Amino acid sequence: MINAIKVAENEGADIICFSELATCGYPPRDFLEFDDFIHLAEDSIEVLKNHSHQVAIVVGSPSRNPVIEGKDLYNSAYFLYQGEVLYIQHKTLLPTYDIFDEYRYFEPASEYGIVEFKGKKIALTICEDIWNLGNENPLYTVCPLDHMMPYDPDFIINISASPFSFSKAESRTDVIRANVHAYKLPMFYINHVGAQTEIIFDGGSVIMSPDGTVYEELDYFEEIIKTYDLNEVIAGQTPVLQPKNKITEIHDALILGIRDYFGKLGFSKAVLGLSGGIDSAVTAVLAARALGPENIRVLLMPSQFSSDHSVQDAIKLSENQGIQYDIVPIKDIYEAFMKELHSIFKDLPFNVTEENIQARIRGTLNMAISNKFGHILLNTSNKSEMAVGYGTLYGDLAGGLSVIGDVYKTEVFELARYINKDKEVIPENTIIKPPSAELRPNQKDTDSLPEYEELDPILFEYIENRTDPADIIAMGHDEKLVRRILRLVNINEFKRHQTAPVLRVSRKAFGMGRRMPIVGKYLS
Amino acid sequence: MINAIKVAENEGADIICFSELATCGYPPRDFLEFDDFIHLAEDSIEVLKNHSHQVAIVVGSPSRNPVIEGKDLYNSAYFLYQGEVLYIQHKTLLPTYDIFDEYRYFEPASEYGIVEFKGKKIALTICEDIWNLGNENPLYTVCPLDHMMPYDPDFIINISASPFSFSKAESRTDVIRANVHAYKLPMFYINHVGAQTEIIFDGGSVIMSPDGTVYEELDYFEEIIKTYDLNEVIAGQTPVLQPKNKITEIHDALILGIRDYFGKLGFSKAVLGLSGGIDSAVTAVLAARALGPENIRVLLMPSQFSSDHSVQDAIKLSENQGIQYDIVPIKDIYEAFMKELHSIFKDLPFNVTEENIQARIRGTLNMAISNKFGHILLNTSNKSEMAVGYGTLYGDLAGGLSVIGDVYKTEVFELARYINKDKEVIPENTIIKPPSAELRPNQKDTDSLPEYEELDPILFEYIENRTDPADIIAMGHDEKLVRRILRLVNINEFKRHQTAPVLRVSRKAFGMGRRMPIVGKYLS
Predict the structure, then answer these.
(1) pLDDT at A118
(2) pLDDT for B524
(3) By CA distance, what is B136's nearest residue in A?
(4) How far apart are CA B100 and CA B514, in angstroms?
(5) What's the pLDDT band for B167 if we cut at 50, 70, 90?
(6) Distance, CA of B420 to CA of B171 (rounded, Å)
(7) Which of residues 395-424 of B touch A (CB under 8 A)?
């Protein structure tokens, strides 16, 4: 932030804006309950304040509520200038749904004002504060900008930490435009960029002219410092917009998600198991693009049930990508397990137990590389599998980060096609062969699941839309299938409870935004 | 509930009370976002309503907010009588901290009244509603009973789902008494009993006479139906109180937690690894008491690093308890792993990697029993280990339920002593030998951790009290040690993210009540 302030100074800027809760990161979660942590955020404000010479600083940070009643903190926008705090505006609308827990920590604002700076009046808002225009949002009863308009502001600043989902950028621009139209003021919408564990922030900050045209929409998934002239923004120009494409955005979001997870934990290297299937292939390519192929190491772990092409496809991908691979057959280890278990299992038939042992041997081998060489194991399960529990806990469900756990299998195919758009990165055979876990002879995913083209729309209705089972059936899906699938989703909550954080790219991902009982009896 | 209504009818009762959100279970979490789920709760109210003949029914259930603005639901107390809903009182004070997310779902009440029934006026309150007497609770600004007093009620009913923690029963009685004193009315405080995944409700319902003496405090951890005469409650009697003892309560709470986790998931049998150490010994005894020793199966999995006494101690405990045990040595499987990994590891020295492989072999063997025979694997890690990350993910951290993950190691010793109070259930040697993971020759926990007597108070200050590091040091703990321990707690969040639900017995357990960033840099 100090470096950015210097850049702004050199460019002759009057104000530099950082995003919501930028001092402590968003979301800080229960760190906010530690007094010591709040002190550190306050210290950051002190430091920033003293770095304001020519340039004023707008920055988000927690602040303390001096009133005993109510929550202890506010989610605040500070306006700092030349060693002073000129103004603090608290956030009013506190999202408390999906991944958001803001009312767990913050008291809503009840007072409003503006900042006067160099002859201009500035309305400061924070993220959700602009999302109840005309009181149209059923979640809220206050529209903060309505309370600022009596002070006759010249422009609006909104500092946000608005998480990415592939359908969101469009609605975000619409909301900014609706505010700009309503108040006839230009708006500077500054959004956080970067990933915080599972939550990805895409940036895409928007400068909007008072006539509602986008003056500029900044690149997604990149930190950018750029200076604007208020008069030019008011005068307007031909809109500068980012292209919007679901699969491109997911691809780029996942790469940022991987990069920041590793970077923020101080790791640079990833390991994963490469099965020859599409999920691990896509994950490996995304990881190589995020961390560099030289930082990716893969294990090929064939068993007696693996098909010949699996190893070949995995080798081909590794060579295409310049990724280091090792082949570690699991047959002997598997037999060592079965030998020790024989006195207990006796002649009980082969079943899911033996399938899981294979998966767990692979999990253990992957983790051995992780432990020995300091790699983080990447989980390669997709959202369809995670939904219905098609995966082995501590086996293929192991890993420090789930890369494609919010991407349905049908979307994984789209991602693979997108990755291959210019040349064959992922072997064609990996994409066209029928999905299989290869844990028993001639196994196919469709032995126990419907085709993914049939499964995914049912899951989407239930997970993203929370549609009633009866209504999903009424859409034309087979009743028995729907009931079986929804039951599988609910009874497998115990598995999802124990899996890695899932990079969130949809509006309803598994993890902190979807909080389900494990022993709940609903549809189970 | 229908059976209970029949009992109440036979006893000639006028009113039967069930607890908060009793129709759908507490906490229903995001099930509340499913319209279909709310319909099912509404259907339950219909069914109950039609089972009210002589006896009126007070029951908690979600109800819909007819106003578009605000949250979609209320957390409500229904008063049902002879096929009619006589009255609905919504909950006002919505806990949104620790394990609670009520403002995620519910709109607070803004209207208050009383029920008139058989010549009496009844004030209906829900759980937290009585916890802001005299507006003394800084979290809230409304005291619901103040708004009911103008209607001149004759007595107060409070239906609760107040989770157990070992220090809570005392403060609960105090709160009830303060309300009774303030309003000079008798109170019937009905608390939920049973466990919902990790959250344990202890019951301990309280009937209080208007002079503030406890008319009766009901047993903890048991479902009870009991009838009271209002006039007798008003007249008062010698207090009937439950004994309060921290370790007894934890012991009983964990047994209920295990029993309900299994019962609600439709399982009856548990498996766990018995190391000869105190954690698995205590867990095995608690499991045997919850499910019956005939439903417990243990694996003894010695390695070349296991001491002789480990297997002997484990066998002795199994025999004491009448638990089925099998001995499965892991040496050959371990060597099979090392053989396959040799081409990758070459001559790199033995380190934590090889320790983890042993732990993961044991995890895989335990899960093999779980999968083959339908047992749930119990996790045996204690709170001290979980805090500092002293455990192997997918190894000893595996399991469907963490039994003692909210019990510090020093408290595990107290539990063992309590279990042994009448006779030696847990072999004395298990209790007195120095704790060791036995993953390398002559390993002791104190090789990498301080003595638990030194560690646990530091952890308690940081986790339960969220004390500033500087203040923990000022209490007389070594600065370097404190900084190292707190850092270990924070950097091991990734492990806790992937472990089983932890039965909650303290006021700050790992899990849904403690929401920490994984990549957050605080103290890491």
Answers:
(1) 97
(2) 86
(3) A69
(4) 11
(5) confident
(6) 30
(7) 398, 400
CA distance A356 to A372: 24
- Give the span between the Cα atoms of A452 and A457, in whole angstroms: 9
- Pick from B204, B209, B189, B217: which is nearest to B123 by CA? B189
Check A30 against B514: CB less than 8 A apart: yes
Q: What is the CA radius of gyration of chain A?
A: 26
Surface of A (434-473) touching B: CB under 8 A: 466, 468-470
For B55, the token pair is: 């006896």
Residue A61 pairs with which residues in a beta bridge? Answer: A76
| CA dihedral of B206, B210, B214, B219, whole degrees rounded to 10 | -20
Q: Which residues of A432-458 are buried (b: 16+ CB within 10 A; e: fewer)?
A: ebebbbbbbeeeebeeebbebeebbbb
Q: For A125, phi and psi rounded to 5 degrees?
A: -130, 160
Q: CA-CA distance, A496 to B303, in Å (whole number)?
A: 31
Q: Is A29 left (phi over 0), alpha (psi -120 to 50) or beta?
A: left
- pTM to 2 decimal places: 0.97
Residues A371-383 have a mean pLDDT of 98
Longest dimension (CA), chain A: 86
Tokens found for residue B507 = 């006021």
Encode pLDDT of A321-330 as tens digits: 999 999 999 9
pLDDT of residue B176: 97
Q: Biggest alpha carbon distance in chain B?
A: 86
pLDDT per residue over B361-389, tens digit each? 999 999 999 999 999 999 999 999 999 99
* A194 at B interface, C-beta within 8 A: no
Give the total residue count for chain A: 524
Q: What is the dihedral of CA A142, A98, B107, B180, to 10 degrees?
A: -120
Which amino acid is present at A257?
A: G
ipTM above 0.90, yes or no: yes
The amino acid that residue B497 corresponds to is H
Give Cα A327 to chain centroid, integer Å: 32
Percent of chain B residues past pLDDT 90, beyond the cut = 93
CA neighbor of A512 nearest in space, from B106, B510, B515: B515
H or E segment and range at residue A451: none
Asked if B336 has any chain A CB less than 8 Å from its own CB, the reply is: yes
For residue A10, give Cα distances in angstroms to A4, A14, A18, A226.
10, 11, 17, 12
Active site residue A20: yes
Q: Report which secondary-structure segment, H or E, holds A363.
A: helix A352-373
Tokens of B209: 């006479």
Question: Average pLDDT of A116-127?
Answer: 98
Task: Compute CA B2 distance to the chain's CA centroid, rounded to the nearest angstrom.
Answer: 27
